[in-house]
Amino acid sequence: MTTVRQVQVTFDCADPRRLAGFWCQVLGYVLPPPPEGFATWEDFERTLPPQRRGAAAACVDPTGAGPRLFFQRVPEGKVVKNRLHLDVRVGTGLVGAERVAALEAECARLVALGAVRVRLLPADGWDESCLVVQDVEGNEFCLD
What we know:
By secondary structure, the protein is α/β, with parallel strands linked by helices.
């Protein structure tokens, strides 16, 4: 049996570069270096046919611990709720008002980057509070 050693999370989107930039700022990720022989991604993209320019982007955890995020342009827009979403763990170990304050503070930072605050899901005796947010293309994720 094969052991999975790495996971990549792929997003269908309209603007891969914009979404990659947003998620780099959310997670502290970075853009990977351009392909060998190119000083920048723009230099590389100029070698592609026009329809492939800007069609994909990625961001990576600079420590190598987290999964690579890949963004690919698709022609259709987002229509319904995600079947998969990311939980950005900013409140680990916190409870009650302290947790909600940490979630709200991170939400305010992300709203300044273009995110949209959707709603707070308050603690219910089973799960702690979390905040539902949308990224710059409307993909839902949770601040947990």
